[in-house]
């Protein structure tokens, strides 16, 4: 994965079959996976899960669970190392990004945060206002594409 000094949106390998959206009761629900980099264990993910569940805007429109993921090359088995969100009607990309940024600022070692949606990867490293704005725009665009699909 390329090193980052800010937000990266990598959707160069996107194919329409890789979009991660569900149709539930006539509504499009978007699936997101959040991965924390720099070695935090499941305790950090559980902390983020609790933080997001306590945020009224996120809690109202997303289901948040800690999940195992497919092992990366060279890794064995699965671990509880990702947070999966399934977002519904009324979901706000801005509220979600701001909740991630607020949680990250409470951590002694601020991990890099990766948000995955299909083949799109959004990486938060410094959480500058520009990075927050670009992350929000990228998530809004992904949600719009899912609704249009």
Q: Tell me the helix content.
A: 25-40%
Radius of gyration, taken over Cα atoms and rounded to an integer in Å: 15 Å
The termini sit apart by 28 Å
The tally of strands reads: 6
**Uncertain stretches of 5 or more adjacent residues:** 1-19
Counting helices, strands and paired strands, the structural category is alpha+beta
How do you describe this structure in short?
The protein is α+β, with helices and mostly antiparallel strands and 149 residues long. It contains four helices and six strands, in the order ββααββαββα. The chain has helices at 42-54, 56-61, 93-105, 129-148; strands at 21-24, 27-36, 62-68, 80-87, 113-117, 120-124.
Commentary on this structure:
This protein has helices at about 40-55, 55-60, 95-105, 130-149, and strands at about 20-25, 25-35, 60-70, 80-85, 115, 120-125. It has about 150 residues and is an alpha+beta fold. Strands 1, 2, 3, 4, 5 and 6 form a 6-stranded antiparallel sheet that branches. A hairpin with a 2-residue loop joins strand 5 and strand 6.
